[in-house]
Write a sequence for this structure.
């Protein structure tokens, strides 16, 4: 069973299935969008490239969403999640992307959330996420492990309404 104190390899080399990623691709195709024309997967995770040295560090520096897609005349910059646990590092990354995109009327930044593989996606806009992030009644929580710099890994469990 995957646990926080397992090594990266123990947690990820054997588990290559990403429910939310697969659900996102199925959703985009179902909507009639064409890969590399209407949508593109940009983001990667260390578990996608387990042999790439220092990938974990590169991902701390790169500002890249999981997906971009065009729908109804709008460009969506989207993180894709299968959980409502939202890490502080993810929020900070989303904030940077939003700050770059906010001057464009036809760009949306946020999270596409899938509760399970067959769920309809729920779009959580950056402004909605920011409101929840700043809402004191949603407590800040911490993963038991520390990040690579030795800091606590903070997260909040967001609401999907």
């Amino acid at each position: 069973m995957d646990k926080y104190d397992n090594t990266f390899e123990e947690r990820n080399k054997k588990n290559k299935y990403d429910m939310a990623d697969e659900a996102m691709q199925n959703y985009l195709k179902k909507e009639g969008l064409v890969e590399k024309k209407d949508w593109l997967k940009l983001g990667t995770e260390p578990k996608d490239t387990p042999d790439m040295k220092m990938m974990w560090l590169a991902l701390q520096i790169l500002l890249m969403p999981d997906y971009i897609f065009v729908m109804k005349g709008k460009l969506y910059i989207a993180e894709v999640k299968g959980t409502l646990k939202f890490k502080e590092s993810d929020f900070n990354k989303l904030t940077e992307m939003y700050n770059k995109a906010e001057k464009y009327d036809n760009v949306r930044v946020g999270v596409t959330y899938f509760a399970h593989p067959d769920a309809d996606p729920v779009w959580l806009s950056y402004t909605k996420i920011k409101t929840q992030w700043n809402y004191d009644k949603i407590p800040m929580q911490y993963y038991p492990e520390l990040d690579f710099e030795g800091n606590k890994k903070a997260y909040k469990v967001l609401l999907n309404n």
User: Anything to note?
Assistant: Strands lie at 39-41, 67-71, 74-81, 85-87, 107-113, 122-125, 141-146, 152-157.
